[in-house]
Every structure is written in C-alpha cells, then in structure tokens.
C-alpha cells in the first residue's frame, strides 16, 4: 500500500473504534521522545488511540504509523511530506507503533526529534525490542510511559460506575462483585472486556511469553529450564524467590543449567514485564540489592489460571500492582520489610529519604480475622523507621484502631483502590 493511501485509511479505520479512556497521564514534551512501554496485551496501541482522542486531535494534527502493517516507506520524512500535501500543514504529533519493524528506526526517529517541532511517541514489541533498548538507542532522549493492564478505577468506569465520595448499598455491592471477578480473572483489557475466554487468553499469553518474547528474542536453547523457571516464578507469587532453590530443584531433576543462566532468566522476566522482583527495604543500596526478593506477577490472574485460587495472595498482588500503576517504582521507593525473627510488612513506601507509609495486606472480613502477626510488625517497624502512617488493606473490614499508641487504618480493598 502506498504511504498516502495507508495514512488516510489508517485514520479512517480508527475513527469508529470503541476506545476506553485510560487513567494514564502522558506529559507531552518536544524535548523528549515518549516511549510507551509495558507488558504484552496491556493495550499500548489502543492507549495511543486514547491519547489522540483525549488531546482532541483532528486528522490534520497527527501522523500515525504501525510498521507491522503493509506500507511503502523508506524514510519518516516521507510521511511528513505526504501529510503536508494532504492537509496543507505539518503534523504536531507523530505516533510510531511497532517501531522495531522499521529498518534503522532509531536514526529516523532521532532525526525528527532533533528538529524539536513534534511531540513524538513510539511503541515497540517486547519480543523484539525491550524498553531499556529504546532508551539506549535514542541516546537517553526517551522518557518511559508505562501502560499496564486496567486499574480497578478503569474497570468501574467501563461498567458505568463513577467515582464519588459516597455510594449507595447497591453501588457498593456492584463494586464488590466486579472486584471479586477481577480478583480471579485479572485486569488485562481483552479479559475485562470479554473479548476472549480467560483460560484461553492466559494459555496463549504464556506461550507468547515463552516462545516469542524469550526463546526467539534471546535465543534460549535450554527451554526445559526456562519453563521450570517461569513455573517457579508463578508458584512463588507474593512470596520470597530464591534462584538457589530453583537451581537445586532443577539439579535434582537432572537438568543441566548454571546459576548464571537462571540469574539471566530473572533479568529477562523483568525486562519483558512478566513480573517484578521486589527487594527488602534497607537504608543501604548494597544491602537492598543483596536481599532476597519477593516475586509479583504483572497480573494476578496468571496465578489463578496456572496454580490455584488463593484469595490472600491475589489480594496482595492486586495491592502491589496498584502501587506500581500509581507510579511507585519497585526497589526505588517501593519495598517489603522482614526482620530476622520473620516478622514482615508487605509494603514500605518511601518519599525522598524518609519512609512515608507502611501497608499490610490481609484477606479479612472482620476484626476477629486480623492476626497478631499482621499487626505486630506494623507497630515494630513504625517505631524503627519513624513512620506513623500505618494501613491494613482488607477484603471488607473497615475501622480505625489505636493499638499500643499507634493509629492503624483498616480499609477494604475496593475502597482503597478507589481513593
């Protein structure tokens, strides 16, 4: 397809699409290239369509190219020229989707960036281009914009529920019902919107992660060890993850794999946004890096469909993911805490050089279900880290309690996710 026909046809094709608004802010700047990154099937392409609509862009305002579609183009300047010929002016916004499919893309994108005339947005496939590679190839001129599966607020909006201070009994009941569904089925757009059966989605998703994003992209030969490693990640969801234990388990099965390879797998899992390895809070950066991590999946339903239903784990995973979607960065200002006695606080939040919040997560519906082992660490760490902002996210129990001169706020998950 010639470029002019493609550009006109592309804009016509997205005009009638149903696009759900995302609660993700894109700070536009002509001084940086915005790199839209995130896990597979999180809706990065549709997020671009959402950006176009939210910005109120007319067809004369932007160029949009998906390089995995059939079109004839050798240089990006051709698109600028064609746009000017059609609309009588240059575009203000340029959106480049699946940019890795365009030969020497980084040189062309950087050339446009150097003119400081356009708001530039690029996306790439995790099977062929990692987010860190985009930043490297664009000489540090790219700022990342993360697109993850839907947040609960976005799910509510899709289902016609608006956020407000007070809710009726029926509105609250509907929110609890939606949250129960998301607890098991997750937040990936295709699943939330009912476009595919969840079991089929996650089976295909894992196949894509293994064979395209990892095996093909990194040339992995030891597929058995890779599958075992990913299975260990899934089964370890919200729990400590030890490469040493995985190594010993594979060794006992007669598998030949080195610890170096397994550590490489660990890095790949994070690079392709399959999951996160959350480190223990320490004041020393070196101690943080040496601590044993806890693993969290990029969507709680991956655990549901490949392991079992564990409400406590799923609830904790949702809280972690919500913190990430709110902008907290694992191992920078988001950690967990555990001492030598085994007392643990699920999440430690930092602001600058101080600890700003301690969060515990428990699947509890009333006070009798709150265990001492969940309260004791909060009080202990509150004193140790000089932080009095103490929260416990529950399933439905709500109350403010004062224990040992510490105020602890117990908040139901649905309310915590919507405030």
What does this molecule look like?
The chain has 419 residues and is of the alpha/beta class. The protein has two domains: 3-146, P-loop containing nucleotide triphosphate hydrolases (Rossmann fold, 3-Layer(aba) Sandwich), CATH 3.40.50; 182-417, no CATH class. The protein is built from 17 helices and 13 strands. It has helices spanning 3-15, 44-54, 76-87, 105-114, 131-137, 152-158, 169-185, 189-192, 198-218, 223-235, 243-252, 259-271, 285-290, 301-306, 311-325, 372-384, 413-417; strands at 33-37, 62-66, 93-97, 119-123, 142-146, 275-278, 294-297, 334-338, 344-351, 354-361, 390-394, 399-403, 406-412. The strands form three sheets. It has a six-stranded mixed sheet with strand order 8-9-10-11-13-12. β2 (62-66), α3 and β3 form a beta-alpha-beta unit. The mean pLDDT is 92.
In brief, what are we looking at here?
By secondary structure, this protein is an alpha/beta fold. The protein contains 17 helices and 13 strands.
Which SSEs are present, and which pair or pack?
Layout lengths: L2 H13 L17 E5 L6 H11 L7 E5 L9 H12 L5 E5 L7 H10 L4 E5 L7 H7 L4 E5 L5 H7 L10 H17 L3 H4 L5 H21 L4 H13 L7 H10 L6 H13 L3 E4 L6 H6 L3 E4 L3 H6 L4 H15 L8 E5 L5 E8 L2 E8 L10 H13 L5 E5 L4 E5 L2 E7 H5 L2
Parallel strand pairs: 1-4, 1-5, 2-3, 3-4, 10-11, 11-13
Antiparallel strand pairs: 6-7, 8-9, 9-10, 12-13
């Amino acid at each position: 397809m010639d470029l002019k026909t493609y550009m006109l046809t592309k804009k016509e094709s997205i005009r009638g699409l149903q696009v759900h608004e995302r609660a993700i802010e894109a700070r536009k700047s002509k001084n940086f290239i915005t790199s839209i990154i995130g896990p597979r099937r999180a809706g990065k392409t549709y997020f671009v369509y959402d950006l176009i609509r939210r910005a109120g862009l007319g067809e004369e305002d932007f160029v949009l190219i998906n390089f995995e579609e059939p079109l004839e183009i050798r240089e990006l300047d051709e698109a600028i020229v064609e746009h000017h010929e059609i609309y009588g002016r240059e575009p203000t916004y340029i959106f480049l989707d699946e940019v890795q499919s365009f030969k020497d893309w980084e040189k062309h994108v950087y050339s446009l960036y150097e003119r400081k005339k356009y708001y530039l947005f690029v996306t790439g496939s995790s099977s062929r281009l990692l987010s860190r590679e985009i930043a490297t190839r664009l000489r540090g001129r790219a700022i990342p914009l993360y697109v993850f599966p839907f947040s609960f607020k976005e799910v509510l909006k899709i289902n016609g529920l608006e956020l407000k201070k007070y809710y009726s009994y029926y509105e609250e009941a509907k929110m609890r019902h939606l949250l129960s569904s998301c607890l098991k089925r997750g937040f990936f757009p295709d699943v939330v919107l009912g476009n595919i059966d969840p079991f089929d989605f996650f089976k295909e998703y894992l196949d894509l992660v293994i064979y395209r994003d990892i095996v093909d992209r990194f040339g992995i030969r030891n597929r058995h060890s890779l599958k075992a490693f990913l299975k260990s990640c899934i089964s370890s969801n919200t729990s400590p993850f030890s490469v040493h234990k995985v190594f010993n388990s594979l060794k006992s099965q007669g598998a030949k794999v080195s610890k170096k390879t397994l550590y490489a797998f660990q890095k790949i899992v994070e690079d392709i946004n399959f999951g996160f390895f959350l480190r223990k809070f320490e004041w020393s950066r070196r101690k943080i890096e040496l601590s044993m991590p806890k693993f969290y999946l990029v969507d709680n339903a991956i655990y549901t469909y490949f392991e079992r239903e564990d409400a406590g784990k799923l609830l904790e995973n949702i809280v972690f993911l919500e913190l990430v979607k709110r902008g907290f960065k694992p191992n920078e200002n988001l950690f967990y805490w555990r001492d030598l006695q085994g007392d643990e606080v699920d999440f430690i939040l930092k602001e600058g050089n101080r600890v700003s919040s301690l969060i515990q997560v428990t699947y509890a519906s009333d006070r009798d279900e709150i265990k001492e082992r969940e309260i004791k660490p909060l009080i202990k760490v509150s004193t140790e880290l000089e932080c009095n902002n103490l929260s416990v996210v529950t399933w439905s129990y709500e109350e403010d309690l004062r224990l040992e001169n510490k105020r602890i706020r117990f908040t139901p998950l649905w309310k915590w996710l919507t405030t």
